[in-house]
Structures are given as C-alpha cells and as structure tokens.
Design goal:
This protein has about 240 residues and is an alpha+beta fold. It folds into 3 domains: about 60 residues; about 70 residues, no CATH class; about 80 residues. Helices cover about 45% and strands about 10% of the residues. It has 11 helices and 5 strands. A 5-stranded antiparallel β-sheet has the order 3-1-2-5-4, with helices on both faces. Helix 7 runs antiparallel to helix 8. The radius of gyration is 23 Å and the shape is elongated. The two termini are about 40 Å apart.
C-alpha cells in the first residue's frame, strides 16, 4: 500500500467527517486500509500519519477507539473459531504490527465485562451473529496451562462451601476469611469444598450463580448434585 494513497484517504475521509480525521478503527472500516499497512510500515504511530496529512491529532486519536479494538478481537476470534484468551492476544500483538495489546482490552474491565460489551457491540451490527453466539457460549475457564495463575487486576477467590445438604457459592479477597465469617453464623458445621483463584472474582461468581440458577435454594445457597460439585472443583484458576 503506497504512502501517498493512504495520505489521500486520510484527507478524503476527514473531509467527509467534517474536517476531523478518523481514528484507526473507523479509518480501516471506511477504507479497507489495514492498520498494518500504515503503522510499522510508513509511520511509527497513527498520529504521525495524521500529522503528515496536515492534521493535529487530538487525544481521542492517541488510544485505539473501541470499535477498532472490538474489530481486531473479532478478526482473531473468527480465525480461531472461539473467543481468544490473553496469551493468544499477546502472541498476535507480537506477530502483527498495530494489533491492540492487553492494556487496550483492560480498559473495558474484566474479561467477563469485555465479553458483555463485545456482545452489545455485535448485536448492533449486521453479519456479527457468529460473534454474538460465541459471547453467549462464553464460559470463564482455567488457563490452558493449569499452572499459570492470573496476572491482571486484584486477585480474589470464588469458593464453594457446604453446610448440611446445601452449597454456597461466594467470593472473598482472602481465602479462608469468608469461611470463618460464615462459620460463626451457621448452626451446622461449614465445610470448604473448593476455592478458585481469579483476577475477576465478581465475574466468576456471577457465572457460577447463573449456571446453578435452577438449583438455587435461598440467596447464594444451592442444592447441587455430585456432578455440579465436580464441575466446580475442576477449576483451580479462572
């Protein structure tokens, strides 16, 4: 892709946008010119391209816009046939100039929150039903390498405890503390069944509550089967 053509397209699309240059994501969508045709090839940064085209980049152009991050993630998801995980994003970032890094995704919140926002984004567009379905099938899961612990955000715990015949799914910032807090309130002995370490305790807790919804008794207490408990115990990190 010739540099002169890219500069012409920057000027053309800016004129059609009221004199304001487009962000990287929208520019790619409008022109079909991929970010790797620009950044890392003709310019070190997108703002450098805008300056050469005669524009003064504003702060909105410094970071990737949301649509660009979503579309790049969607592109990778379609290649893989599922939602990519952090390690796969990092690999693509290393191999593809201009691909958003994990910091670009963290601004959306947890993985659970990102998937929710991605689903909302795709539902507003045509031809994105495949990604909507991937989002609906999304299940927080352990890393493919079980020894790898989560590294983003504050680490917390999602636990499964048992009192009598019922189980409780909850979360805490300290393993063992919530067990003690509950234990002094319950008439029957409380038993810790399993603890999942995670950087998204609220999202993982919500996932298990939704999964066990049909077996909910009262509040966070559930009447679980042996298979339900076994499914929970398979997870060490999420």
């Amino acid at each position: 892709m010739k540099k002169e053509h890219i500069l012409q397209e920057i000027k053309r699309t800016a004129k059609e946008n009221g004199g304001v240059p487009l962000g990287m994501g929208r520019f790619e969508k409008e022109t079909g010119i991929k970010v790797e045709d620009c950044v890392g090839r003709h310019w070190a940064r997108w703002n450098d391209a805008l300056r050469e085209a005669g524009f003064s980049p504003n702060q909105m152009n410094v970071a990737y816009d949301e649509s660009f991050v979503f579309e790049k993630y969607i592109e990778l998801a379609r290649e893989m046939g599922r939602l990519p995980v952090k390690a796969e994003i990092q690999l693509r970032r290393k191999s593809t100039s201009g691909f958003p890094g994990t910091h670009s995704f963290r601004r959306f919140g947890s993985k659970h929150e990102f998937v929710g926002k991605l689903k909302e984004y795709c539902e507003k567009l045509t031809g994105h039903q495949d990604i909507v379905q991937m989002c609906e099938r999304y299940v927080p899961r352990a890393s493919d390498e079980s020894e790898t612990e989560p590294s983003n955000g504050d680490v917390g715990f999602v636990y499964l405890m048992k009192s009598g015949k019922f189980y409780k799914v909850g979360r805490s910032n300290a393993a063992g503390r919530r067990e003690y807090e509950l234990g002094i309130q319950l008439p029957e002995k409380l038993k810790a069944v399993h603890v999942i370490r995670t950087d998204d305790p609220s999202g993982i807790e919500a996932y298990w509550h939704k999964r066990f919804e049909a077996k909910r008794g009262n509040g966070e207490w559930f009447d679980l089967s042996a298979a339900d408990v076994a499914a929970f115990k398979k997870r060490k990190f999420m």
